[in-house]
């Protein structure tokens, strides 16, 4: 009884109200049954109409009586006390509005973009693996019989193996000097000096080239503490253009199964810049266009083109 007083609800009246609801539902059902059955069990039409009207009125009176009883009991039930603890149900009013916090739509959009990214990555991988052996520059007349065998394809290669590959490439090109250093552990960094034309900083992960920075021969390539500066761009627009083309070359020369071939092909392509300021454009025949020499080198033929003429 203390519980009844604490919550402010008359449980006995509440039980009677439930019974009244059931009685009201039964009387309403009888009304619809009467309408469904219609006028029956009388020989004359007048007798059937009177019987139907009387039966229908009785059912309506029953509905009205049950409804009045339910209203009376509902007033006796009472209301729950405002001090009654609602526990976790009291937090329902704090639920966010869908229009103001569209979390579901954002997650759905992210899921669609993730599927698109995975699909296009699969297409790009298939295209890069097609005719991969043809995606290397001219190998200075080396025949297919003298081509070295496939080397280990793991991402983590022994430093001695990387040093040996870079040393062989350094001996292949007399005009090019390659200085290898490892200031941050096992990852190699190359300082490539091409004649008296330019210098290239090559950042590598094992035997895979990560990025390149091309600067002029007389530009400083070191920071104040003596380390290679891998972040600063060249002060000259011509070498900034060559840096952009070198990044494009890294995306072109892709052969994960033979990383040494990729490095050798890239160095062969880079060696073609030995005549950066001497070779004319193969399309327009001019040495300068908009104040710049032909900075583009074809990936297959290594011919020089202006950036606009190659298109």
UniProtKB/TrEMBL annotation:
| Subunit | Component of the Mediator complex, which is composed of MED1, MED4, MED6, MED7, MED8, MED9, MED10, MED11, MED12, MED13, MED13L, MED14, MED15, MED16, MED17, MED18, MED19, MED20, MED21, MED22, MED23, MED24, MED25, MED26, MED27, MED29, MED30, MED31, CCNC, CDK8 and CDC2L6/CDK11. The MED12, MED13, CCNC and CDK8 subunits form a distinct module termed the CDK8 module. Mediator containing the CDK8 module is less active than Mediator lacking this module in supporting transcriptional activation.
Q: What is the lineage of its organism?
A: Eukaryota, Metazoa, Chordata, Craniata, Vertebrata
Under which name does UniProt file this protein?
Mediator of RNA polymerase II transcription subunit 27
Q: What gene is this protein translated from? A: MED27
One Gene Ontology CC term in the entry: nucleoplasm
Molecular function GO labels: transcription coactivator activity
Family from the record = Belongs to the Mediator complex subunit 27 family.
Pfam families listed in its UniProt record:
Med27
List the GO biological process terms: regulation of transcription by RNA polymerase II; somatic stem cell population maintenance
Q: Report the domain of life of the source organism.
A: Eukaryota
Keyword annotations of the record: Nucleus, Transcription, Transcription regulation
Protein location? Nucleus
């Amino acid at each position: 009884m203390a519980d009844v007083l604490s919550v402010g609800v008359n449980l006995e009246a509440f039980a009677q109200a439930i019974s009244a609801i059931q009685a009201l539902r039964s009387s309403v059902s009888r009304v619809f049954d009467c309408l469904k059955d219609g006028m029956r069990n009388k020989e004359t039409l007048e007798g059937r109409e009177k019987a139907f009207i009387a039966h229908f009125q009785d059912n309506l009176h029953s509905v009205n009586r049950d409804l009045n009883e339910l209203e009376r009991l509902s007033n006796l039930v009472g209301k729950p006390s405002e001090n009654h603890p609602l526990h976790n149900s009291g937090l329902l009013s704090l639920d966010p509005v869908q229009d103001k916090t569209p979390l579901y739509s954002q997650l759905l959009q992210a899921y669609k973009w993730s599927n698109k990214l995975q699909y296009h990555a699969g297409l790009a991988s298939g295209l890069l693996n097609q005719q991969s052996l043809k995606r290397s520059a001219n190998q200075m007349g080396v025949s297919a019989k003298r081509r070295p065998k496939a080397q280990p394809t793991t991402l983590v290669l022994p430093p001695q193996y990387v040093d040996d590959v870079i040393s062989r490439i350094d001996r292949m090109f007399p005009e090019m000097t390659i200085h290898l250093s490892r200031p941050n552990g096992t990852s190699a960094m190359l300082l490539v000096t091409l004649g008296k034309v330019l210098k290239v900083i090559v950042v590598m992960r094992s035997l895979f080239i990560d990025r390149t920075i091309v600067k002029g021969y007389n530009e400083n390539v070191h920071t104040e503490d003596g380390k290679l500066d891998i972040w600063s761009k060249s002060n000259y627009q011509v070498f900034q253009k060559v840096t952009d083309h070198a990044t494009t070359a890294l995306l072109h020369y892709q052969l994960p199964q033979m990383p040494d071939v990729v490095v050798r092909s890239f160095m062969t392509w880079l060696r073609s810049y030995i005549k950066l300021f001497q070779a004319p454009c193969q399309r327009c025949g001019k040495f300068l266009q908009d104040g710049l020499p032909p900075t583009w080198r074809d990936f297959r033929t290594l011919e020089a083109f202006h950036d606009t003429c190659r298109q």
